[in-house]
Amino acid sequence: MKNYLIFDCYQTLIYKSDLAESLQVFIRENLNQTISLRYINQALAIIYQRHKFSHPTFTTEQSRQSYYKKYNKELLAILGLTISDNSALALNKKLSRGKYEIYSDTLPILKYFESKHQVPLGLISNWTKTLAEILRDLNLRQYFDFVYSSQDLQIDKPDPRIFTLALRNIRKTYKKIYYVGDDYELDIIPSRQAGFIPVLIDRPDHYPKNIDCLKIKSLLELKKVIK
After folding, report:
1. pLDDT digit string (tens) for 110-137?
2. Pick the CATH number of 3-14+101-225 from 3.40.50.1000, 2.60.40.10, 3.40.50.2300, 3.30.200.20
3. Domain boundaries, the chain
4. pTM (2 decimals)?
């Protein structure tokens, strides 16, 4: 085999569609405030950028609660609101109940490469050990030869060692290993440092056209990239 194709997970293959709506409802019901989805989505984008380099690993329930109290207070502060510790934990409980959904182009591309029997698939993502379980619940796990979370490997992106550690048990030599992700700093830079060919999936078209890597707006474009 010449090629290996590895994916990121969140906002590459799956997403939560109701985060902004759930936060809007929480604010209205608990704080008696009405904030537009536009501003809520902006706040979610801001807090993601602030925290994307510090993926949490919880050793106790207390450490998990401490993290989300701080995180959700900061999120609401971006929107000009103040909440208590208990409200921050209640918000986390509400948001965690949101269901993961599969992007419309995910299953078609996974089935395409599965039917070709020439490009094996893997998955490496900053996640807890629940990653494989979530993929099984979504009927996606069977498409991947391996699934590694950052907690499995005890190392987070953007450290390029996460990629080399994940591939340490692969016996065959591949001419090209592609990595598809949605974040330039977390996915593109470190996968390139690890010797992979990075592919940026940019559905909302946030990144410039002349970015220094392959950029696609749909996973279906991988059919033309990987042959």
Report:
1. 999 988 767 899 999 999 889 999 999 9
2. 3.40.50.1000
3. 3-14+101-225, 19-98
4. 0.92
